[in-house]
Amino acid sequence: MNIQEIKAAVQAHVDCGTDQETRAARDHLVTCLEQLHRVVPDWRLVVLELIAENERLSARLGEEVSPEVSQMLIQLQRDEEAELVSAEGFVRLTGRTSISALQRNFKIAYGRACRLMDKLHARGVVSPIDAEGRRTVLKREPRP
User: Which residues of 39-51 are buried (b: 16+ CB within 10 A; e: fewer)?
Assistant: First the structure.
């Protein structure tokens, strides 16, 4: 199953009518999520879209989100947190605050490196972009 087939399957189940159709759609989304985990190298954004769709379908049924999807979401959050901690360590150790440095070091795509840099900025690790287009590593705030 490739990414186009998965997206087509999801789209086919977006406007389900009956509870039985909605359950079938939700079950199919779980299968798609499992397939995506194996097929797509940078699958995080697609998985988040599918999880949101799964939650919408579950809400329509008045049911909880399936345990498989909950586990995937928890694992995704753990992975993102670990990646952010690694990126913070890299930036603080090397002093390199460019998106391209993140790309090269973590072997990730440009968009993902941009999101990672935005998260580092939100956490107060790097400064906003200055007039010359550069960022600096900010000092850690002392903890009380």
Answer: eeeebeebbeebb
| Residues 27 and 55 sit within 8 Å (Cβ to Cβ) | no
pLDDT for res 133 = 85
φ, ψ for residue 65, nearest 5 deg: -65, 140
Residue with tokens 């998260």: 119
Name the nearest CA neighbour of 112 among 44, 52, 49. Answer: 44
Encoding tokens for residue 86? 């690694």
Other C-beta atoms closer than 10 Å to the C-beta of 130 total: 9
CATH number of the domain within which 119 lies: 1.10.10.10
Domain tally, the chain: 2
Is it the case that residue 115 has pLDDT exceeding 80?
yes
Answer yes or no: do 87 and 118 share one domain: yes
Would you state the structure tokens that stand for residue 129, as one six-digit string?
């972009």
pTM over 0.85: no
As a whole number of angstroms, the distance between CA 47 and CA 72 comes to 9
